[in-house]
Amino acid sequence: MKIILICGKKQTGKTFLSTALAKQIQKNDMIVKTFAIADVLKNSIPNYDENLKHLFRPQLVKMGAEIRKKDPNQLIRKIADQIKQEQPDYVIINDVRLQNEINYFKNEFPNSIFVLKIINDMDNLNINDHDITEVDLDQYEPDLLIKKSQIFVVRNYQYVENPEFINTLRLIQNHF
């Protein structure tokens, strides 16, 4: 089993990349399971609406911080338990935000972890979010670093898939 941890700041394309990567891996008749740590939180909010996720983000950040304060591994332990139970060929966790999350998965699944970090080279967002979930991995050295521009291009003021994105997927696959 290979476990791919995708990390990066908000709005860098982590979910988009994980979906595309899963589809690419499945072409080789491999079983791929994708997880998001935030889904553990989202599932606990009865009226959560993915279309309004920007409105729910402060609540999710606060809930996550409260849970991690009591037990820093509670959310990721649930995912690790599911992985152990299901045993897919590949696992993609698309929203790793903290060093302890990487360490936990490396301890639970030695020699199975591949860390992929996306950096935002396209937007001048001036992300002033100093929450630990946005800055904890700033200095972290991943197994592979890719740029948002390797995933997206801007056309008519909208992000669309970069025509060279398939090469980025191949580059990622060549690393594990």
Write the layout of secondary structure elements.
Blueprint: E1 2-8, H1 14-26, E2 32-35, H2 37-42, H3 53-70, H4 74-86, E3 90-96, H5 99-108, E4 113-119, H6 132-135, E5 144-147, E6 152-155, E7 158-161, H7 165-173
Average pLDDT taken over every residue: 87
Strand order of the largest sheet: 2-3-1-4-5
Instruction: Give the CATH class.
Output: Alpha Beta
List how many beta strands DSSP finds.
7
> How is the biggest beta sheet arranged?
5 strands, parallel
Beta-strand fraction estimate: 15-25%
Cα-based radius of gyration, to the nearest Å: 16 Å
Pathway: Isoprenoid biosynthesis; isopentenyl diphosphate biosynthesis via mevalonate pathway; isopentenyl diphosphate from (R)-mevalonate: step 2/3
InterPro entries: P-loop_NTPase, Pmev_kin_anim
Subcellular location: Cytoplasm, Cytosol
Keywords: ATP-binding, Cholesterol biosynthesis, Cholesterol metabolism, Cytoplasm, Kinase, Lipid biosynthesis, Lipid metabolism, Nucleotide-binding, Steroid biosynthesis, Steroid metabolism, Sterol biosynthesis, Sterol metabolism, Transferase
Protein described:
The protein is of the alpha/beta class and 176 residues long. It has one domain (2-173): P-loop containing nucleotide triphosphate hydrolases (Rossmann fold, 3-Layer(aba) Sandwich). It contains 7 helices and 7 strands. It has helices at 14-26, 37-42, 53-70, 74-86, 99-108, 132-135, 165-173, and strands spanning 2-8, 32-35, 90-96, 113-119, 144-147, 152-155, 158-161. Strand 4 (113-119), helix 6 (132-135) and strand 5 form a beta-alpha-beta unit. The radius of gyration is 16 Å and the shape is globular.
